Amino acid sequence: MIPLRDQEYLRTRFARELTGGVRIDYFTQRRLPIFIPGREECAYCEETQTLLKEIAALSDKITLSVHEFAESTKEAARLGVDKVPATVIRGALNRPLRFFGFPVGNELVPLIEAIIDASRGKVELDTETVRHLRRLRQTVHVQLFVTPACPHCPPMTRLVGKLALESAHVNADVVEISEFPRLAERYAVRAVPTAIIDERAVLVGAVDEATLVSQIVQVAQGKALRPQAGPPGPATPLEQPRQEREARTESGLILP
Question: Which domain holds residue 185?
Fold first, then answer.
């Protein structure tokens, strides 16, 4: 799935930059030969598993564990997994970062960066950001909705991942929202990236680090939040949910 040239690039980079072990827990759902009313089939579980196996094979510091979602309910609950496909990355600090959906296109690079950050156990953030995060006493749940084609989503994915690795009080999910149309409907998502913070604050579009952290801190402190002022940040309109299973074979890996 990942072109051989890109695999070699990643193998070299992992050898140079992975300083500690990284655990990837992947939750999948096997396809059944019969139709079961009420059961939603996982459109990209097989493709996601193939991608993760290729990534894990590039370094002996990466350990991949595959779980059948229906048979691993306790482990899924412990790691905050409630839908599939789900990829949970944990490193030196054992702070999980969850990716729901097939991380291809523009979302593959942030996944790779999250693996490297988790291995190191440290990230680069503004001094003020670190100060605010260290003052958090309440855990805040951040759901970031993205799509693979959105050019504005990767910086937000990267930022949310850094915040989750920096603070045990930031509980983060990155969701490929076009794979979960019911969530899109529930939260009335019309553009990506969209961040939902503890069901209380909504940020539409890419925002800077200070803005996102300010919203997280206010939610954690229980302060009344004002509606998002002014126009949203740069965003991509959300396409209508796919009605048919599409073939995705390209990794979409973008290398510097």
Answer: 123-222
